[in-house]
């Protein structure tokens, strides 16, 4: 029994000697762990921060095309007014709620020129307080240029940018915020063009209206009376 106690005491003595000899190393390790903890906390705070304006969002989020979650409030001519819903982390989120400000983000459908019928379609399809995802592509003043995704069922999501064009409720436009010569720009632009082409082939929405107008113009121009009237007008101008 005495031998065991002496062995334990000797072990503790050696551990104490090692700690004294490597005190600076232990201090460095504890400092490093503290710094790492601060960095993890800072990252958590950034990920759980609630953005209430476009300028609050870090530039890196836009550059990396981060996808954010939000709750739809209003549909206006300027875009979708969305309340950002950040990632929830226990303790960190509870502290942040005490000082978070209120405000809505203005989200625009990137690469889409919305027709009036498109606005009506959005108001019919989207419900108040509906959860949406918006992928950051660019930022222009107070507005965010985004791909907007809506869940349809448990396993299916629909990109509103493409769906608007697929239904013939808008036209493709330049994707603001992305470099025109970037790979991502042309990848997304091709997706939008393919969606628009489907509506064009099926004469949907604005393309149906335009094709109807073109048929009327063709009938008028091919009318015998109209052709005679044009010839008379041409002869009259030349004779005068």
TrEMBL record:
It is a single-pass membrane protein. InterPro entries: C3orf33-like (IPR042421), SNase_OB-fold_sf (IPR035437). It comes from the Eukaryota. It is found in: Membrane. The keyword Hydrolase does not apply. GO terms for cellular component: extracellular space; membrane. Its main location: membrane. Keywords: Acetylation, Membrane, Transmembrane, Transmembrane helix. Gene3D superfamilies: 2.40.50.90. The keyword Transmembrane applies. PANTHER family: PROTEIN C3ORF33 (PTHR28434). This is CC033 protein.
């Amino acid at each position: 029994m005495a031998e065991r106690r002496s062995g334990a005491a000797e072990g503790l003595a050696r551990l104490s000697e090692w700690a004294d000899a490597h005190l600076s190393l232990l201090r460095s390790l504890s400092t490093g762990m503290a710094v790492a903890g601060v960095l993890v906390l800072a990252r958590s705070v950034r990920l759980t921060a609630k953005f209430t304006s476009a300028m609050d969002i870090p530039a890196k989020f836009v550059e990396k095309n981060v996808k954010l979650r939000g709750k739809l409030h209003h549909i206006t001519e300027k875009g979708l007014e969305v309340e950002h819903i950040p990632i929830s982390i226990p303790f960190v989120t509870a502290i942040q709620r005490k000082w978070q400000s209120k405000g809505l983000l203005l989200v625009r459908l990137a690469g889409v020129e919305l027709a009036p019928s498109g606005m009506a379609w959005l108001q019919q399809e989207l419900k108040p307080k509906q959860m949406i995802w918006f992928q950051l592509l660019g930022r222009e003043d107070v507005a965010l240029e985004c791909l907007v995704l809506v869940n349809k069922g448990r396993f299916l999501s629909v990109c509103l940018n493409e769906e608007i064009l697929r239904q013939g409720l808008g036209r493709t436009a330049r994707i603001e915020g992305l470099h025109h010569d970037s790979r991502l720009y042309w990848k997304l632009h091709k997706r939008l063009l393919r969606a628009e082409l489907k509506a064009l082939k099926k004469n949907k929405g604005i393309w149906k209206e335009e094709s109807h107008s073109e048929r009327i113009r063709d009938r008028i121009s091919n009318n015998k009376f109209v052709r005679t009237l044009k010839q008379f007008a041409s002869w009259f101008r030349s004779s005068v």
